[in-house]
Structure to design on (540 residues):
C-alpha cells in the first residue's frame, strides 16, 4: 500500500446511502425468528436458534461453519432461601458453588463463619471479597423486585489449572428488595438462614458460528456478538444478532453491486458461552485463531443489546482510542455526541492481547439514574422479550454499527488513529507525581519519539503494526496470552502500580515495595513503546 494512514473525517456518500437501507421490518422479522428460544450455552434450543442464523447468513452469501469446542459452562438451577421459617423467592448464579441445606447466622456485610447479606446485583468482586473474609455464602439483595441473572466468576473464559482457585468457592443467591426488611430483622434477632442452591458447572460442548464474506481484501473486520442468553434474551442478545444479520446482508449486497468498493473482508462470529461461560467462546477463539487474527484482523466491532426500549443514549459505548474518531462520526450521524469512553472489561473483548482495537459492546443505553443498569429493567430477567425492543431504536443502533463496519471495510486507508492513543497516555502520565528514578522520564522520551514518527505519512501496514504493539499496553495489566480477570478496574491498568506508588507515603516501607512494581510497569511500557517505534520507517 502507498496511501498514508490519516483519518479522513469527510463522510463518504456510500456510507450515507447504505445507512438509509437499514430496514426496521427486516430487523424485526429476523428477531422474531429467534425470539421464541431459550438459549442457555450448549443447549439444544441454542443450537436450533443458531442454525436459523446460519441459514440466513448462507443465503446472504457468506461461507459459514460451526466450531464446536469444550467450554467451562455453569447453568444455575433451583434455589431456596428460608429465614425465620419464611421462604423467600431467590435465584442462584452461574459459577457459584452449589449447596444443599447450608445453614448459618447472617451478617450485614461479610463476616467469617456467617452468611453475608450484600446490597446490589450479584458481582464477582463482591462475592470474592466475602469469600476471602470467611463468609459461608452470600445473599445479594436486588435494588428492586427483579431477580437479575449473573455470572459471578472473575475468570475470563474457561479456566486453566491456575484459574481453578479463582473460581467462587461459596454459594451465592439473590433475593428481591422486598425481603430486605425481613433479613435485617433476622440479623438483629440472630435467626439463621438456610440456603439450597443447585448449580450445574462443568465442561460442555458449545458452538461458535463463523461466517465469512471473502472479497479478496487485505485483512478482515471482525463483527461479533453472543447468542447464548438468560431466558429468551430477546434484547440481550437477540436484537444484536438481528443487527449483525442486517449489516451482513447490506454489506454483501453493496459488494456485489459495486465490485471493489469493499477493500477488506468481513468475518462474523456469533459466540456461545458469553452468559454462562464468562466469554468462553470468544476467549477460545482468541486462543485457537491467534495467528490468523494477529495477521489479518484489522478491528473488532462487538454488538450487544441493541434497540432496547428507552435506550435513547448513544454516547456511552466503549471504544479503543484508535477508533474513537470513527465511532464519534457514526454517532454524530444520529444527532448525538459520543463521549469517547474507553472500553470496560466486558463484552467479549477477548482480543486486546493480540493487539486488535475494538469498538462498542453495548451500543445504546438508558439515561443515568433511572435504573440499576443502563440496559433496561428487564435485562437478564425472564421479561427480556420482544415487546421491549423498539424497532426505531433497533434500526438506529444498526445504522451506527453499520457505519463503522462499512468504513473499516471500504476506506482506502484504514481509519486508525494511533496519535489519539499517544495523547491519552500523555494525559495519564501527567496525572502522576513520582520521583524520576522510577523511569517516567524514559517513558516520556520514547513517547515523544513515537508521536513524532506518527506525524509522518505512514502506510496502512505500518499503522496496523503499530496498533498491534500499542493496544495491549492500555487494555491489559498482565501478559498478552493470559486474559485479565473479568473485574471492574481503572483505565490503563498497566499504570496502576505507578498510581499506587504516587499515593503512598514516600518514606514508608510500603512505598519501597510499590516502587518495585512501578519500575517493572515502567519497563514494560518503555519496551512496548519502543517496539511500536521500531515498526515505523527508518527505525530499528
Amino acid at each position: 500500500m502507498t496511501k498514508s494512514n490519516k483519518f479522513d473525517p469527510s463522510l463518504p456518500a456510500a456510507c450515507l446511502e447504505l445507512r438509509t437501507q437499514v430496514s426496521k421490518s427486516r430487523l424485526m422479522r429476523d428477531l422474531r425468528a429467534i425470539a421464541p428460544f431459550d438459549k442457555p450455552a450448549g443447549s439444544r434450543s441454542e443450537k436450533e436458534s443458531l442454525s436459523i442464523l446460519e441459514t440466513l447468513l448462507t443465503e446472504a452469501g457468506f461461507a459459514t461453519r460451526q466450531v464446536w469446542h469444550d467450554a467451562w459452562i455453569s447453568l444455575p438451577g433451583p434455589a431456596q432461601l428460608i429465614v425465620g421459617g419464611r421462604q423467600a423467592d431467590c435465584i442462584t448464579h452461574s459459577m457459584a458453588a452449589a449447596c444443599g441445606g447450608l445453614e448459618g447466622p447472617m451478617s450485614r456485610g461479610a463476616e467469617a463463619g456467617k452468611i453475608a447479606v450484600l446490597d446490589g446485583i450479584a458481582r464477582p468482586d463482591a462475592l470474592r471479597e466475602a469469600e476471602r473474609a470467611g463468609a459461608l455464602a452470600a445473599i445479594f439483595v436486588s435494588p428492586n423486585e427483579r431477580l437479575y441473572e449473573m455470572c459471578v466468576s472473575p475468570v475470563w473464559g474457561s479456566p486453566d489449572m491456575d484459574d481453578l482457585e479463582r473460581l467462587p468457592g461459596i454459594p451465592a443467591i439473590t433475593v428481591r428488595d422486598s425481603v430486605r426488611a425481613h433479613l435485617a430483622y433476622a440479623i438483629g434477632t440472630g435467626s439463621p438462614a438456610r440456603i439450597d442452591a443447585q448449580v450445574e458447572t462443568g465442561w460442555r460442548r458449545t458452538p461458535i458460528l463463523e461466517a465469512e464474506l471473502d472479497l479478496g481484501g487485505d485483512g478482515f473486520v471482525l463483527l461479533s456478538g453472543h447468542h447464548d442468553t438468560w431466558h429468551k434474551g430477546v434484547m440481550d442478545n437477540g436484537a444484536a444478532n438481528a443487527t449483525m444479520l442486517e449489516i451482513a446482508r447490506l454489506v454483501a449486497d453493496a459488494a456485489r453491486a459495486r465490485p471493489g468498493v469493499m477493500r477488506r473482508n468481513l468475518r462474523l462470529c456469533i459466540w456461545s458461552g458469553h452468559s454462562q461461560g464468562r466469554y468462553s467462546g470468544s476467549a477460545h477463539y482468541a486462543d485457537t485463531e491467534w495467528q490468523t487474527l494477529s495477521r489479518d484482523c484489522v478491528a473488532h466491532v462487538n454488538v450487544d443489546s441493541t434497540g432496547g426500549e428507552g435506550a435513547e443514549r448513544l454516547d456511552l459505548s466503549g471504544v479503543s482510542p484508535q477508533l474513537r474518531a470513527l465511532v464519534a462520526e457514526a454517532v454524530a450521524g444520529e444527532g448525538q455526541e459520543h463521549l469517547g469512553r474507553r472500553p470496560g472489561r466486558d463484552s467479549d473483548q477477548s482480543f486486546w492481547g493480540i493487539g486488535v482495537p475494538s469498538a462498542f459492546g453495548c451500543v445504546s443505553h438508558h439515561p443515568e439514574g433511572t435504573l440499576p443498569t443502563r440496559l433496561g429493567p428487564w435485562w437478564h430477567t425472564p421479561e427480556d422479550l420482544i415487546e421491549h425492543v423498539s424497532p426505531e431504536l433497533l434500526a438506529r443502533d444498526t445504522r451506527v454499527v453499520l457505519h463503522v463496519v462499512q468504513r473499516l471495510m471500504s476506506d482506502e486507508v484504514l481509519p486508525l488513529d494511533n496519535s489519539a492513543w499517544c495523547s491519552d497516555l500523555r494525559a495519564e502520565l501527567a496525572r502522576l507525581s513520582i520521583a524520576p528514578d522510577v523511569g517516567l522520564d524514559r517513558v516520556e522520551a520514547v513517547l515523544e519519539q513515537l508521536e513524532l514518527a506518527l506525524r509522518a505519512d505512514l502506510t496502512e501496514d505500518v499503522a496496523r503494526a503499530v496498533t498491534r504493539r500499542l493496544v495491549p499496553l492500555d487494555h491489559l495489566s498482565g501478559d498478552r496470552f493470559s486474559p485479565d480477570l473479568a473485574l471492574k478496574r481503572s483505565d490503563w491498568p498497566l499504570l496502576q502500580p505507578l498510581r499506587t506508588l504516587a499515593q503512598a507515603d514516600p518514606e514508608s516501607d510500603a512505598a519501597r515495595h510499590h516502587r518495585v512494581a512501578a519500575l517493572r510497569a515502567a519497563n514494560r511500557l518503555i519496551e512496548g513503546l519502543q517496539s511500536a517505534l521500531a515498526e515505523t520507517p527508518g527505525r530499528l
About this structure: The chain is about 35% helix and 20% strand. Residues 509-534 form the longest helix (26 residues). The chain has a mean pLDDT of 94.
